[in-house]
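Retro notes (design track)

What went well: tokenization of the new backbones is finally stable.
What didn't: we kept losing track of which sequence belonged to which structure.
Fix going forward: every design gets posted as structure first, then sequence, in one message. First example under the new rule, 200 residues:
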């Protein structure tokens, strides 16, 4: 359950999409795909991120489904419904067969911000090459898409990757959201490598 808070919204949406999730009941199935005795890594090519066939509307505003789970607060969701289409619909040149309708609670007012707006507001980066990750997950969206709740971003960390075999350095922009796990780690300091103190 260590990362349950981080993926809570993702699981919440997937539970609404898939009918096999039963309220009040949890089923865990273990598949021993990876073993300690393995000596060869398994290679996974994740090239299907742009072929997602479900899109999401948050309070009637369109967002790619993958973007929904990044910074929005799961406890702020009023309802989730799935509208499966008999025919595909096209949005921004991409065809979808279903729509996830998400209604937020009236008291929750997210401040939607794009990657470019975030960089301009909080960093000194200009036209450098950048990659973005949120809570350790790489993000592959247009830098002008407003898909992040600015108020739920806890930390913006910029690292320069200047030792790669590249003509120009790449900057890694790492965002952390205000999950319970991230807050606990951020408010903990280590003294002499073993004693732990917690900041109030």
């Amino acid at each position: 359950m260590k990362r349950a808070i981080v993926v809570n919204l993702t699981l919440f949406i997937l539970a609404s999409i898939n009918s096999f999730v039963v309220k009040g009941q949890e089923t865990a199935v273990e598949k021993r795909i990876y073993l300690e005795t393995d000596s060869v890594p398994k290679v996974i090519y994740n090239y299907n991120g742009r072929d997602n066939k479900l899109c999401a509307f948050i309070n009637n505003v369109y967002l790619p489904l993958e973007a929904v789970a990044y910074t929005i607060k799961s406890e702020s969701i009023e309802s989730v419904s799935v509208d499966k289409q008999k025919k595909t619909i096209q949005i921004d040149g991409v065809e979808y067969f279903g729509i996830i309708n998400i209604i937020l609670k009236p008291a929750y007012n997210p401040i939607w911000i794009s990657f470019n707006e975030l960089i301009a507001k909080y960093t000194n980066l200009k036209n450098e090459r950048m990659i973005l990750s949120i809570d350790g997950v790489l993000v592959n969206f247009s830098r002008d898409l407003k898909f992040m709740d600015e108020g739920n971003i806890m930390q913006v960390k910029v690292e320069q990757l200047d030792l790669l075999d590249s003509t120009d350095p790449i900057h890694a922009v790492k965002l952390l959201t205000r999950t319970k796990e991230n807050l606990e780690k951020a408010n903990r300091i280590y003294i002499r490598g073993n004693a732990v103190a917690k900041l109030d």
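Added context from the reviewer: The first strand starts at residue 54 and ends at 58.
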